[in-house]
Amino acid sequence: MTKKSLRKPIMVLRSRKTAIIKDGVITSSGIGEPSVYHALVVIFLEFFAWGLLTMPVINVLNQTFPDHTFLMNGLVMGIKGILSFLSAPLIGALSDVWGRKFFLLITVFFTCAPIPLMSINSWWFFAMISISGVFAVTFSVVFAYVADVTTVEDRSRAYGLVSATFAASLVISPALGAYLNDKYSEPLIVALATAIAVLDVFFILVAVPESLPEKVRPSSWGAPISWEQADPFAALRKVGLDQTILMQCVTVLLSYLPEAGQYSCIFVYLKLKMHFSSIDVSIFIAVVGILSILTQVILGDLMKALGAKRTIIIGLLFEMLQLLWYGFGSQTWMMWAAGILASLASITYPAISAFVSIHSNPDQQGVVQGMVTGMRGLCNGLGPAMFGVIFYVFHVDLNDEHNVPAAAGGHALNGLGYSQLMPGPPFVFGALMVICAIAVAAFIPEVPSDNIRRPSGEKKRLSLDVDYEYERGRKVAGPLSPLMHQDSAQL
User: Fold this and answer.
1) Confidence check: pLDDT of 489 > 60
2) How many CB atoms sit inside 10 A of residue 122's CB?
3) Which of its termini does the chain have fewer beta carbons within 10 Å around, N or C?
4) Strand 474-478 relative to strand 467-471: parallel, antiparallel, unpaired?
5) Is residue 32 within 8 Å of 169, Cβ to Cβ?
6) CA of 291: how far to CAs of 108, 173, 254, 255, 320, in Å?
7) Cβ-contact 162, 479 below 8 angstroms
8) Rounded to two decimals, what is the model's pTM?
9) Per-residue 3-state assignment (H helix, E strand, C coil) for 255-291
10) What are the phi and psi torsion angles at 280 (to 5°)?
């Protein structure tokens, strides 16, 4: 036997592929070897299917809940977000035991399951969207899949491709869905979206190979999962251990809570309250999404010139201004101006992640980033519900576009109705929260505290184009926070 033939099995065993040697034959559960491109196709098809329904869902939402459209939108998205926050750690831990492919299949299937119900029963449609939050964590499984098939050096680029693919699906699909809605009918769009979702499930079944190496998995499917692995609040309990980290997490809470609420309702608000056409909303999504990508491209240069802390404050200022403009704006051009400010504000969360990365020890990166990510996940559930309740409290409904006199039970303020003076009360409330976030961020120390200071002999490295996530006890690169949240296309 030659030396070359001896090396081949060793290389196969050491690689991070799913290839399995059985009776001297290398087998695989999908088409080809596992790669980033398998994950990209899964993400693109899932969110392309939901993106097609952006405009039809808004119409069905208004028809189903004409008196409390914004409240029900907030509650549906809020329940979904909270369920996703609670289930994400458990699904991630189980995917380490049972493999990624199985949970890609489960998450995509249940996330897309409500789609055909849109043409059958709208009440069941929105109920299923809420319940689907238990499995609406495809991104988490995809990131784990990518981590399995890439090296640490290539992971940043791979996660960037995942984010870019997600953004591309959102830029294209709402416009296509709006066009088909104007030319044909909603049932046709629902049928097309359902077909794409089925294609995604079929692609996972047939083409996606397992990425988790057999040698990494426990010996049996009955391997125990610790409560700490499945506890969504595990990282949050450590927030108060360090004052600097506590202030950063408070900044995330105060700034991302209104941001998550805004993501959940902005398209509904533009179409139903600001009277944007379906085409206008689609163009708005595309333009703001592209501007956000361009803004994040220059994030590195901005942080080098101003520093991480000043960049965070600048991003928060843009967020405050865009929320105020959404809240007090009553004309179309004001909404477009607010959208441009929103694209500029998209630098905030990546800047916070980079700031945390700079001021944390290498062995603490996962825990610290896990706190920030956990805080953000909690906001994804609470933010939409908060916005929906505020819309309800201020009686912002859609079947009375004019001011209701105070004598008739309406709310008047100095002769002007809330709807005239402040069309979007939740956005104004969110702006006040961001002001508090700016005040907290201003007092975050530039010099790290002793608890999180790097070793003196270690050279500081700054990653300007990625943030990090907590995966299986270690730091891994994660994607930049896209302006259009992954749930935005769904309601």
Assistant:
1) no
2) 16
3) N
4) antiparallel
5) no
6) 29, 17, 24, 20, 18
7) yes
8) 0.75
9) HHHHHHHHHHHHHHHHHHCCCCCHHHHHHHHHHHHHH
10) -60, -45
